[in-house]
Write a structure and sequence with these properties.
The protein is an alpha/beta fold. The protein has one domain: Double Stranded RNA Binding Domain (2-Layer Sandwich). Helix content is about 40%, strand content about 30%. The strands form 2 sheets. Strands 2-5-6-7 form a 4-stranded mixed beta sheet. Strand 6 and strand 7 form a beta hairpin.
């Protein structure tokens, strides 16, 4: 009887954990990328609301083997927005009243932990720089990451959860290195 109770408890625990929601870790800057921004002699910029703001939008929903991954900020678009603002602030380049503005629209956003031993992150965003209503720059950026995962969901799901900030850092680093973006922010 005791064995039956233990097995039933384990089955219930497994079933309940499948319904759990995991939350992304807090973003931390890639200081090499931030330092590279500082050396560019760029003008401060503001940041528009990263789109789409709708929590129901596909890019604002990630599941890891059926388990919901939630953004600590409410939506993944807001997570990227706050990460961008944090980096620009760290570089001394953020001014919410600046005439030059960066707008981003998430195009793709996913963490895939379905593999046996490897997981992948995939994100893409369209970046637009405007000033006084004029578009100075517009381009889509893509970033991918790969990380060690596992066949076991108990290992793969937390690894996917932990990967999200690294995926966003990779995307922002790609954006910051773009010569066209840098030129638009120098004007």
């Amino acid at each position: 009887m005791r064995k039956l109770i233990i097995l039933a408890s384990m089955a219930l625990g497994t079933a309940l954990s499948g319904c759990a929601s995991f939350v992304t870790p807090e973003y931390s800057a890639d200081y090499a990328a931030v330092d590279a921004l500082k050396r560019q002699s760029l003008k401060p910029a503001s940041v528009g609301k990263v789109q789409p703001e709708d929590p129901g939008a596909k890019v604002n929903n990630i599941t890891l083997r059926g388990t919901k991954l939630a953004a600590s900020t409410g939506t993944f678009a807001l997570y990227v927005e706050q990460a961008l603002i944090r980096d620009l602030t760290e570089a001394g380049l953020y001014d919410k009243a600046a005439g030059k503005r960066l707008d981003l629209r998430l195009v793709r956003n996913d963490i895939d932990v379905s593999g046996f031993s490897t997981g992948e992150g995939d994100i893409a965003t369209e970046v637009t720089v405007t000033e006084g209503g004029n578009v100075l720059f517009k381009k889509q950026f893509d970033a991918k990451t790969q990380f060690e995962s596992s066949f076991a969901g108990a290992v793969a799901i937390p690894k996917g959860q932990a990967e999200y900030p690294r995926l966003v850092r990779e995307l922002l680093s790609v954006i910051y290195r773009d010569a066209g973006l840098v030129a638009a922010l120098k004007k």
